[in-house]
Design goal:
The complex is a heterodimer of chains A (195) and B (290). Chain A has 195 residues and is an alpha/beta fold. Chain A contains 8 helices and 9 strands. Chain A has a single domain (2-194), classed as fumarase (Alpha-Beta Barrel), CATH 3.20.130.10. Chain A has helices at 10-15, 33-41, 48-51, 84-94, 107-116, 128-134, 144-147, 174-194; strands at residues 2-5, 21-30, 55-57, 62-66, 69-74, 98-101, 119-122, 135-142, 153-167. The chains are: A alpha/beta (195), B alpha/beta (290). Bound molecules: iron/sulfur cluster (SF4). Iron/sulfur cluster sits between chains B (63, 65, 67, 143-146, 184-185, 272, 274) and A (76, 125-126).
Chain lengths: 195, 290
């Protein structure tokens, strides 16, 4: 396992390759649809200190507040492709080094990863409790009232958040590769049915 | 509302959200053991199983997307269902406040989250009268990511060269699972509704997901198709999370309804590996307050 801590340098991110198993530590910010839309349309500055060299996590967590202290109860990844229209612009304008999510992203994001030096990290979809345990502390939250719990920006500190690189800064995408391989199987199976 | 019933339902929600059914878990263990140790797919299954254990141990949601609450309720003939609904809503509200459920009911026009999983058609209720004098509450928590990859086909389908026959049906299922790739949190459990109208076909594709693993369709032709599809879908090689691997689906369940002569729908519902469904059977005395 490779260990990385935010803020991550361009040099370090460019060393990663598809298939690498990584433990991420440091500051991670959750953002989903409402958050991405806001980052592109209004470019709020309150996120700069957390996102420069940082990581966005596509996640809508179950969150608990006990005596004024927030914590994640369950916090697995959500489907990333919904942020495809925004992600490239967010990488560029906030100097992001990566996204964590599930399902992978499209060509525009892959391009931005290659151009600006970023990676897509795949978390295990559904592993809500396991991941919540690697989030040690909630440092801040933005837009909680306006967006609601799942869509708010949760700024958290993680330790060894387990992920796998599935899109790297060399323009490689594991998702594209699997899709190609499975497309061949798909054609073969379909034609075996006709026969 | 009925407080005793609310408490029973609260227990049902807690169990569904935090404790994966044993047949599902066993099938995930088997899937892991088929993969090469150290491979991406092996570690994906390992993380899934570790997560499942932790969720049970800490009584926390297996997945943060605790889904939409779908209740399938069998009641004695002549039961007034409104008080049951109210008791269930109270349980859903409480379960949300106790972090067993994420607030997942959003008004599509205002965008406002109701905050407690109660809203128009939320939770979803499917009542059915039966000839018994006890009550059966079956709860399914259906996540949004897996719901988004569900789809409906209308046969014949020129693109797939799928006609109005069993072969055509199979092609639809294979196409749907191929297109879903890992996006519905593969490996999935595939529900197939055949025939009916558009609505009942979707409904059926979901209801079959309540079956236990290994429980084949009562229709021998469909039972055989389930096994065949299971093998074909796993030969796709999509694997857990779409990382590639030997297990793409854990189960395939088919059901059929008579159709109108002019229509032929094939509907696929995709349930993620976090296949959360639990059953509670109560007799009236279990929750009668008076
Ligand atoms: S598809 Fe299922 S496992 Fe995946 S995030 Fe949604 S509810 Fe969780």
């Amino acid at each position: 396992m490779i260990n990385l801590k935010t803020p991550i340098s361009e040099e370090d991110i460019r060393k990663l390759r598809c298939g690498d198993v990584v433990g991420l530590s440091g500051i991670i910010v959750t953002a989903r649809d409402a958050g991405h839309k806001l980052m592109v349309e209004e470019r709020p500055q309150f996120l700069d200190e957390y996102l420069n060299g940082g990581i966005i996590y596509h996640c809508g967590p179950v969150v608990k507040n006990e005596n004024g202290v927030w914590s994640f109860v369950s916090a697995g990844p959500t489907t990333s492709i919904r942020e495809e229209p925004y992600q490239a612009a967010v990488i560029e304008s906030y100097h992001l080094r990566g996204m964590i999510g599930k399902g992978g992203m499209g060509a525009k994001t892959l391009n931005a990863c290659q151009h600006f030096g970023a990676c897509y990290f795949h978390a295990i979809g559904g592993a809500g409790t396991l991941i919540a345990k690697s989030v040690k502390e909630i440092i801040n939250v933005f837009k909680l009232e306006e967006f609601g719990t799942p869509e708010a920006f949760w700024v958290c500190r993680a330790e060894n958040f387990p992920v796998i690189v599935t899109m790297d800064s060399q323009g490689e995408s594991l998702h594209e590769r699997v899709e190609k391989e499975t497309a061949e199987n798909y054609q073969r199976i379909l034609s075996s049915i006709t026969a | 509302m009925n407080q005793k019933l609310s408490e029973h339902i609260m227990g049902l929600i807690k169990s569904a959200s935090t404790d994966l059914p044993p047949d599902v878990e066993q099938s995930l263990v088997d899937a892991r053991d088929r993969e090469l140790e150290g491979s991406m797919s092996f570690s994906a299954f390992d993380a899934i199983l570790e997560n499942t254990k932790m969720a049970r141990e800490f009584t926390t949601p297996i997945c943060q997307d605790t889904g939409s609450l779908l209740f399938y309720i069998d009641v004695p003939v002549g039961t007034d269902t409104d008080p049951l609904k109210r008791s269930i809503q109270i349980a859903a509200d409480r379960a949300t406040r106790e972090y067993l459920l994420r607030p997942n009911a959003v008004d599509p026009i205002t965008g406002k989250n109701s905050g407690n999983n109660i809203g128009l058609n939320a939770p979803y209720f499917h009542f059915h009268q039966w000839e018994r004098d006890d009550f059966r509450f079956r709860l399914m928590l259906k996540g949004g990511g897996s719901e988004n990859v569900g789809t409906q086909y209308k046969l014949p389908d020129a693109g797939l060269q799928a006609g109005r026959d069993l072969k055509g049906i199979k092609k639809c299922v294979i196409d749907a699972v191929f297109k879903a790739q890992g996006k519905g949190c593969a490996p999935g459990i595939i529900g197939v509704g055949i025939g009916g109208d558009r609505v009942s076909s979707y409904e059926l594709s979901k209801e079959v997901l309540l079956r236990k693993f290994g429980e084949r369709s009562e229709d021998p032709v469909l039972a055989e198709a389930e096994v065949e599809l299971f093998n074909q879908l796993n030969a796709l090689g999509i694997g857990p999370m779409g990382f590639g691997g030997k297990t793409t689906v854990l189960e395939v369940f088919c059901g059929k309804y008579h159709r109108h002569p002019a229509t032929f729908f094939v509907t696929i519902s995709y349930m993620c590996w976090a296949c959360r469904r639990k059953t509670l059977i109560l007799s009236k005395g279990d929750f009668d307050n008076d």
